[in-house]
Amino acid sequence: MIYSDSLHIEAKVKQSNSSNMPCIVTTISDTIIKFESAAQLNPEIPVTLKIEGINLLTANLLWKKNDEYGCQIDYTFHPAVIKNMMERLDKKRLALVS
Q1: Closest by alpha carbon to 88, among 3, 2, 10?
Q2: 1, 29, 45, 83: which one has the fewest Cβ atoms less than 10 Å from its Cβ?
Q3: Residues 48, 41 contacting (CB under 8 angstroms)
Q4: Which residues, in sequence order, are bridge partners of residue 12?
């Protein structure tokens, strides 16, 4: 189930062969995250995502299109966790509220 596909949540992405690189999470579902990053990630190597207030997420890359990546996380998000993350961190939502 996709919870939001127009987010702007700042995060960091890392692979075992790289340092932390900035990324923007744009879509979250219970097991899939889509993000944008200028990093050149290797699809054969799992990624670690760091989103503020959330434990490190390990994920496998599923696809890449330009600077957009889709990945499957190693566990299922509870809907309340996603809702809380969106309310606290989504820059698009926060800009509308301000």
Answers
A1: 10
A2: 1
A3: no
A4: 22, 50
Tens of pLDDT along 29-42? Answer: 888 999 999 999 99
Q: What's the pLDDT tens digit per position in 25-73?
A: 999 888 899 999 999 999 999 999 999 888 899 999 999 999 999 999 9
Number of domains in the chain: 1
Question: What predicted TM-score, i.e. pTM, was given to this entire model?
Answer: 0.84
Quick check: is 84 in a domain? no
Residue 87: inside a domain, yes or no? no
DSSP string, the chain: -EEESS--EEEEEEETTS--EEEEEEEEESSEEEEE-SS---TTS-EEEEETTS--EEEEEEEEETTEEEEEESSPPPHHHHHHHHHHH-HHHHHHH-
CATH code of 53's domain: 2.40.10.220
Domain that holds residue 66: 2-78
96 lies in some domain: no
